[in-house]
Design brief:
Length: 428
């Protein structure tokens, strides 16, 4: 039996893609599946751990990225303060979306590349294709390809991880999620397609939209690597500063722009100077960063090196997990409205590692880390007070997070992911 993992967003080690794909590939090999990862053609990461076939010419968001003009505008906005840059960014997005809305059809290569991959790997009805990162344009292209009746399609597992409103932004009605998914699920290959999300709330939303069952999959990472990093990390010496960390790309929706104020308030207003230090990952997700992110990173870089350490490079998997293991408290200053029913891979990694955290009130993230292991903040102005509240019960938070870790290790493993995927197919 073959498993093809389609990840046209995989181009390097930036983000979670390589680790996510690798975790599933390793779990597949443990089940004696022949696993191939189909990456973007521009892939330039490691090739020694898994079979990676650079294949897709179209990357995730390529069709809606706005090209050179939009990237140039974002580069200019990155150096402005977030309060000024954010409204200007919204204007740039509005102009582009109005332009994009006029396009009733999209000429892309995703569908053609998907078909060619099925032929290249000789994927048949007993095999499986997993697409865990997919946009509405790619779904539209897939709907067109799967109308063919001259071949036996493999099982196609589609994981939808974005909110419906985000999926449909700036598109005409016939290219919004409801219409595209209706075409996909009305075609001759509909019986070969299974839909999934990674939170129950998001699955409920897509089930209501499509009228089809939508499964819930774990968020899979290699727990052995996480736990090895935790075991290798030196214990914090008595009286040593507590390390407060941020993991992932420096992005607006993840609240990176709030970190400079957090540092200032915690060591000033809340009196934690000398008792805490900060270790923040800070690579840009796009060249020059999103609007306002560049100036936030510059502000953080101006703090003393013994107070704030910035990792502005892309880390290897081992370096990333070593950084996670060295963090005593994780801050997730995310936009709670965007993450109300969306997941977070960083949250899962931290829960597996036994790390307490601060997360936005009302979000899926905060619901996964209740007190005492977690603390919720109401809005950006409450971020520093929330962290202060957790630090005042640090020992209890750390103990609770460590106890919770055993449950997360059991329920969010790559093996559990594949079990649910294959069981859903067997029971269909």
């Amino acid at each position: 039996m073959k498993l093809a993992i389609v990840d046209h967003a995989l181009v390097d080690l930036n983000g979670h893609h390589y680790e996510y794909d690798g975790a599933l590939a390793a779990a597949g090999r443990a089940r004696a599946l022949a696993v191939t990862i189909l990456s973007n053609r521009a892939y330039r990461g490691p090739t020694h751990e898994f079979e990676i076939l650079p294949w897709f010419g179209q990357g995730y968001y390529d069709l809606t990225s706005g090209g050179f003009a939009r990237r140039l505008a974002y580069r200019a906005l990155s150096s402005l303060p977030a309060m000024l840059a954010r409204p200007l960014q919204d204007g740039v997005r509005l102009v582009w979306n109005q332009r994009h809305r006029r396009r009733s059809t999209v000429d892309d290569s995703f569908g053609r590349d998907f078909l060619a991959a099925c032929e290249r790997l000789d994927l048949g009805p007993d095999d499986h294709v997993l697409i865990h990162t997919i946009g509405v344009d790619e779904l539209d292209a897939l709907a067109g390809v799967l109308t063919r009746t001259d071949r036996a399609w493999p099982r196609v597992h589609l994981q939808l991880v974005r909110r419906i409103e985000e999926f449909g932004a700036g598109r005409p009605l016939q290219r919004r999620p409801a219409a595209v998914l209706a075409r996909l699920l009305a075609g001759p290959a509909a019986g070969r397609i299974r839909l999934y999300c990674d939170t129950a709330e998001l699955a409920d939303a897509y089930a209501a939209l499509t009228g089809r069952p939508v499964g819930v999959l774990p968020i899979a990472f290699r727990h052995d690597l996480i736990l090895a990093a935790v075991a290798a990390a030196p214990a914090r010496a008595p009286g040593a500063p507590i390390t407060i960390g941020y993991l992932g790309n420096a992005r607006l929706e993840k609240g990176f722009q709030h970190l400079p104020d957090l540092v200032e308030q915690l060591i000033g207003r809340f009196g934690w100077a000398g008792k805490v230090r900060f270790h923040f990952q800070a690579p840009f997700n796009i060249p020059a960063g999103e609007p306002g992110i560049g100036i936030a990173r510059a502000r953080l870089g101006a703090f003393p090196a013994d107070l704030v350490t910035l990792e502005d490079r892309v880390l290897t998997t081992e370096q990333y997990y070593a950084m996670l293991a060295g963090i005593d408290v994780l801050v997730l200053p995310y936009d709670g409205a965007r993450y109300d029913i969306r997941s977070s891979g960083v949250l899962v990694q931290a829960r597996v590692a036994g790390t307490p955290m601060v997360a936005p009130e009302g979000s899926w993230i905060a619901r996964q880390a209740p007190a005492p292991a977690g603390e919720a903040f109401l809005d950006p102005s409450d971020l520093a007070p929330a962290l202060d509240r957790l630090l005042r019960r640090y020992d209890a938070a750390r103990a609770a997070a460590a106890a919770d870790a055993l449950v997360w290790q059991a329920e969010q493993s790559p093996a559990c992911y594949l079990n649910r995927l294959l069981t859903a197919t067997e029971n269909a």
